[in-house]
Structures are given as structure tokens and as C-alpha cells.
Amino acid sequence: MRIATTLFATLALVASTVIAAPENKHGHKNNGPIVINKKVLKTSSVPFIPHTGTALFTNWVGLNVDYKYIQPIFQKVNTTASLGNGTLISRGESHITIITPPEYDTILSKVGMTIHELNALATKNNRLQRAHFDIECLGRVQTVTQPDNVFQQSVQLIVKNYKDIVAYRTDVFKLFVKKGGNPALFAAENFQPHITLGFKNRDLFVEDGIFKGKNACIHKVQLK
Ligand SMILES: *[C@@H]1O[C@H](CO)[C@@H](O)[C@H](O)[C@H]1NC(C)=O
Ligand SMILES: *[C@@H]1O[C@H](CO)[C@@H](O)[C@H](O)[C@H]1NC(C)=O
């Protein structure tokens, strides 16, 4: 009972500190959509990069996205006052996270699934890099993180139409259950694919109480 109350209070705190992205009064809608080279969707021509390690947070599965199409978008966002305003840090690479480090560390690895198995599933016939997807919009999430009480913002491209990616996660789910995993703990469709452009201070995650879905859209994009 006390645990439940504490958990609820924590969730309420997170909820109350999530700040809605403010409407832009200067109307950057008038500046038109952000144009992205449509070749960014052709991820089959860039290599799959395995992310493996021995420490927590070092094992995860990503779909590699060619940074040469993302870097100009980062520059535009970072240099636009109403978007990044020169405050953003970039990782200098781009990807869509498909299996998050916490999913691996706290759920999948617990039944003996290895990162090598997940990578093997991803690379069979170059399946993950060949996955089709599309881009919904430019997204931004902002919140004051706890317990440090620091304002953070993270800007990303929100991904849509990603059935192939869900199919990969469904196979991960099946393997998890086959190995004795509790089906309640992993949902193939419960993730929010996006391509991080940059962030202030640190990136934000679902564990911070934010959601990088259509809800986070702040600007239109156009693929050309
Ligand atoms: C952008 O950054 C400048 C310099 O840090 C600051 O003075 C200004 O208020 C910021 N503008 C917006 C729209 O955040
Ligand atoms: C973002 O813009 C600021 C201000 O122009 C610049 O100092 C900073 O280096 C830029 N960030 C990156 C990663 O290029």
C-alpha cells in the first residue's frame, strides 16, 4: 500500500512537471515545412551497427540512419530561435532505437536473451535496416527532470508507418516468451520510434514521463 502511494505520488510529480511545448507566437508555420531529403528513408544502404557492452545501458538495438541527411536538419533546428535557439547538443550520428537499454537490461536479458540473439534477428536478410518507415513531423519534448530540477528539452523526428519494425519487435516478444519470459512485461507495439536530433543538457526518455509520439509534433516536415 505504501509502495503504491509512493509510486502514485511520483507519477503525479512527473505529470505536473511535464511542460507542454508552447505555441510559437511568431508563427514558424509561415516558414513552411522543414524539407528533408527522402533518401533518409533508404536505410538499407547504411550498415547495421551493433551496440553491445558489459555495463548497464550499453546493450540496445538501433536502426542506423544516414547522418548526412540528418545533420542539415539538426543545423536548421539549432539555429532557429523558435526551435533549438542554439542550445542543442548533437551526438553526431542518427538512429532509431528499436530495443531500448532498459528493455534489454531489465526485461529481455533476465530470461537469458543475449544482445547477439537480438542482433542476429535484426540482421537476418538485413531485415531491420530494410524496414520501411516514414516521418511524421519535427517533435520536441520538454520537462523539468527530478530530482535535479533542471529544465530539459529534446528535439527529434517522429517516425510513423513502421509496421516492419513492430514485426521485428513481435519476433523478439515471441523469443522472450519462448524462453519463459512473462508476456506482461514486453509489448511489441509499446515504443515510440524517433530520430533524435539534439537536446539541451541531456536526452529525455519515457522514464522521465515524456512521450515522443504525434503528441510531440511542433513543426511540419516534407520529404523531397
Ligand atoms: C534564444 O537564446 C538567446 C541567447 O541565449 C536568448 O536571449 C533568447 O531569449 C532565446 N530565445 C528564445 C526564443 O528562446
Ligand atoms: C548549436 O548552436 C550554437 C549557437 O550557434 C553553437 O554554439 C553550437 O555549437 C551548436 N551545436 C552544435 C552541436 O553544432
UniProtKB/TrEMBL annotation:
It comes from the Eukaryota. InterPro entries: 2H-SAK. The keyword Signal applies. Residues 59-205 form the Swiss Army Knife 2H phosphoesterase domain. Residues 1-20 form the signal peptide. Keywords: Signal. This is Swiss Army Knife 2H phosphoesterase domain-containing protein. It comes from Linnemannia hyalina. The lineage of its organism: Eukaryota, Fungi, Fungi incertae sedis, Mucoromycota, Mortierellomycotina.
